Amino acid sequence: MKFVKNYRCTLCGREYSKDEKIYTCPECGEKGILDVEYDYEGLKKILTKSYFEHNRDYTMWRYKDVMSIREEDIDKTLKVGWTPLYRSNNLEEKIGIKELYIKDEGLNPTASLKDRASAVAVIKALENNADTIACSSTGNAASSLAGNAARLGLSTVIFVPERAPQGKLAQLLIYGAKVISVKGDYRETFNLSKEAIDHWGWYNRNAAINPHLVEGKKTVAIEIAEQLGWQVPDWVAVSVGDGCTIGGVYRGFYDLLNIGLINRIPKILGVQAKGCCPFYTAYTENEPLKPTDENTIADSISVGIPRNPVKAMRAVEDSKGTWITVSDEAILEAMKTLGSSEGIFGEPAGVAGLAGVFKAVKEGIITKDETVSVIITGNGLKDVKNALKAAGDKIECKPDIEQLKRYLT
Amino acid sequence: MKFVKNYRCTLCGREYSKDEKIYTCPECGEKGILDVEYDYEGLKKILTKSYFEHNRDYTMWRYKDVMSIREEDIDKTLKVGWTPLYRSNNLEEKIGIKELYIKDEGLNPTASLKDRASAVAVIKALENNADTIACSSTGNAASSLAGNAARLGLSTVIFVPERAPQGKLAQLLIYGAKVISVKGDYRETFNLSKEAIDHWGWYNRNAAINPHLVEGKKTVAIEIAEQLGWQVPDWVAVSVGDGCTIGGVYRGFYDLLNIGLINRIPKILGVQAKGCCPFYTAYTENEPLKPTDENTIADSISVGIPRNPVKAMRAVEDSKGTWITVSDEAILEAMKTLGSSEGIFGEPAGVAGLAGVFKAVKEGIITKDETVSVIITGNGLKDVKNALKAAGDKIECKPDIEQLKRYLT
Hints:
2 copies of one chain form a homodimer. Chain A is of the alpha/beta class. Chain A has 2 domains: 85-112 and 213-391, Rossmann fold; 113-211, 3-Layer(aba) Sandwich (Rossmann fold). In chain A, 40% of the residues lie in helices and 17% in strands. Chain A contains 16 helices and 14 strands. A 6-stranded mixed β-sheet of chain A has the order 4-5-13-10-11-12, sandwiched between helices. In chain A, strands 8-7-6-9 form a 4-stranded parallel β-sheet, sandwiched between helices. A 3-stranded antiparallel β-sheet of chain A has the order 2-1-3. In chain A, helix 4 (115-127) packs across helix 5 (140-151), helix 9 (219-227) crosses helix 10 and helix 13 packs across helix 15 (384-391). The longest helix of chain A is centred in the middle third of the chain and has 16 residues, at 244-259. The relative contact order of chain A is 0.13. Strand 14 (395-397) of chain A pairs parallel with strand 8 (178-182) of chain B, so a sheet runs across the interface.
């Protein structure tokens, strides 16, 4: 918290004191998402390569100095972050690029990248003396909030759209959340949650509204940089729904650049599902964002009205990256390819980023001599139904050795 | 590998050279499970507390010197081990013991403790120039083998009993394994796999048969000790099926004691499901192990004929621990309690150890002034059906704020 200077509205640019209890810009309303601004000169003095070499905290809290949280309770949280960044053993050769690194965010405590935001949310709730946190979510934000809150003894109220996969619902219930299943799509879910949060005064974990959550998510980018010895790749690919995660990814690299730990920001590849791609459409048609259908198996990125457009568009634009879409078939194919080539099992939205890399390589957007990191945002166990679809039915029932011999030879 | 002295049969005590290509004792046959013996005097000189303080490899390979593997390919494996050991925030007070530590093995790459054995299996397969590994498994050993093998470009043939949960099957298929679903129970599955392995000469990952796998599993105990600053708890609780994991847990502490890093072995609480408890029965009735029914929701420990009886019985006896059984209802209850109190989601067999702790405290086996570590062996996402059963149906469909107000107030 010490190095936080102030908040600044991403729309109007107004500055607010870090002591103000606001989620969004009071002037611009709900769309006036805030940036947290830091004293980079101060950070430069302590966040050196040598500092990190000697830091033994292998969780996201190793980056606490460049986050907007009070440090008091961080030891009590789930162990979020410092997930593996694998150099590809088999895939990079298969697709023909120089280097491919795979960040397995499915190994976070509740099995998705969202833990990075939820860990911050529970700490902020304690700071604000709240005993209940609420959010609307297509699944992972909710289950991660419920798990992280349970660990700290906080209550949660979760608004989910009806279509959430069973694995994610099971998590919510086991973590003891109050689950409100909303008849409708993500936007109706979001609106009801907002109304309820205003009414009861719960702490708000909706990632777009709450500026601190992107500050949690950005740690995934900082980790990638550190795990690569502060040499960032040419590209970082990530799937995009609401826009908060890609906003966080950009923000992490932006902070590191300003602190002087890296010397450029990687190009960011924003990957959307073909059946729900408001960012891609706005980008290619050079038009403002328009609401779209939510028509993809990748539930975590099935967001027709993204709540964090400014940060997401900025991430791709300022990093000189691009947007791309992938079909549901390509997503299922990527799931199988990643599992069988590297032993990593991602959920549909989790592997969409990789499907985007495959397509970008084919189309020459990513060239053969470039290096790529892809973020697998969630664990495949969260959505077994779609995994079985991806795998096809390949189970053989063979009761004796003779039949087996005929089958295997 | 450098510190491996020889193999010794757990039944007849015969010694074999470490260069022999054997799985079990040639004299005693399949029941002659081998122990790997180490040069503890040599290990004492290098495995000091200071060595570990400076070791930056936060995977199970940080203990490679006390394992029976060649080190050549270990950098290419999935990142197994160094899972969180949480001090309980809320549960220890609830059950009224001095200290409770929870080891979340569900955060391994394929979401179970079995990764520790499978990572060794794939390294041994490479050592033996095998390109295919096979095993029979109730689920986790199989899915972890498939994932770890995929990462190294090895093929897998997996024999599963029909009842394996969907999550585990999905993993197998996504990791590209050849899956043979056997009509019958675990013993029939095991027998068919053995026949096929003999016939085709695949590398054998059946944990009881293969002595190196317990050497992988023991790292969970070594980690617990290191994460507690080499001060072991009074009790370590773990669920038991085949007997290999509990054998590994004992072995880890045994090694540390002989190396001089700890000064006693914790009492080991072996927890079995009431519907499948051959060890418990043999122990309480002081009789040899007899085949039993396999009648529990905890599929990973539903083993009517355990294949590693000697190591399992020795673990409890030599540690002065005890055996206990828990009902399926108690398992489901423990799943809910762990999730809602600590934000950790375990599968049925994964939380059976905790259910055992609850019962042991109630019965005065574990006393109020004792410290306990419990191993949560697998992730709850692997078995969503039972998780939903544990949670009950608590999803509320409330389409508008007025209905919500009535519901929440």
